[in-house]
Amino acid sequence: MASTRTPGITIDTDGRRFLDKRYHGVRIGMRVGSVTQEQAEQRLQTEIQRIDLELAERARPRPLLRDCAARYLAQSRDKHSLEAIQVHVRLLIRHIGTLEPQHVHDATLAMRYPAELYSSSPRRYRGLGDLHYPFHDRTITVTQCGRLCMNRRKINLSLVFAGQNVGVKQIDERIWLVSFMHYDLGFFDDETCRLEPADNPFQAKVLPMSPV
User: Fold this and answer.
1) Pairing status of strand 153-156 against strand 147-150
2) What is the DSSP string of 164-196?
């Protein structure tokens, strides 16, 4: 096995080249075959770049839950429920703030593995049946590209609903409501054909204060 002009690249008597180099403690060893010296050098450079990326990824500090919580609180400063959120976050951070987010689950505080707490459901998931909307003007199946096609108009909805039936109901002149199951997704008009989201039914609501 003879060496070449580039350290880490060798060539045998049949003209086949090999990569054999140690870079930052990582060994690069592979057979690149009957290629030119330039192609072998390019492959070696590609492997070096791959190692650099892997080492940089390992050296990059991963955010902890307390870091994510601090960012969440900063983004939630305009919420009416900020004080309540801060109280709950402080209680959690005291116990699991030093964990990485991917290591946090419902069993974390109980010091148990998820498999010890959860079990597979005995019911077999069969998907959604055919959805019908008798109180809407029409039922439309969302296309595979996530659109509603109605009266030669295309309204972008979401790929999440591809293949599902949604209900469309006219609520005003040229204004239509789009619903999925029991939830109203949003409204669109005949002119712009752009869906405007409806209020989130799951968001926290601030109840009015009772008169004293």
Assistant:
1) antiparallel
2) -EEEEEEEETTEEEEEETTEEEEEEETTT--PE
For 3-45, what is each residue's pLDDT tens digit? 889 999 999 888 889 999 999 888 898 888 888 999 999 989 9
Task: Specify the length of the chain in residues.
Answer: 212
Give the integer Cα–Cα distance in Å for 147 and 57. 39
Spatial contact of 154 and 193, defined as CB atoms under 8 Å apart: yes
If one counts every other C-beta atom within 10 angstroms of the C-beta of residue 140, the result is 20
pTM of structure? 0.41
* Backbone φ and ψ of 46, nearest 5°: -65, -40
The lowest-confidence range among 76-80, 101-105, 163-167 is: 101-105
Per the CB < 8 A criterion, the answer to whether 30 and 18 are in contact is yes
The encoded tokens of residue 203 equal: 């968001």
Distances, alpha carbon 71 to alpha carbons 28, 68, 74, 109, in Å: 40, 5, 5, 22
Compute the distance between CA of residue 62 and CA of residue 82 in angstroms, rounded to an integer.
26
Distance CA 135, CA 167 (A): 8
Q: Are 167 and 178 in contact (CB under 8 A)?
A: yes
Which residues are within 8 A (CB) of 43 and not within 5 positions of it... i.e. 6 or more apart? 19, 30, 32, 35
For residue 184, list its beta bridge partners: 179
Query: pLDDT at residue 54 above 80?
Result: yes
Task: Give, for 165, the enclosing helix (H) or strand (E).
Answer: strand 165-172
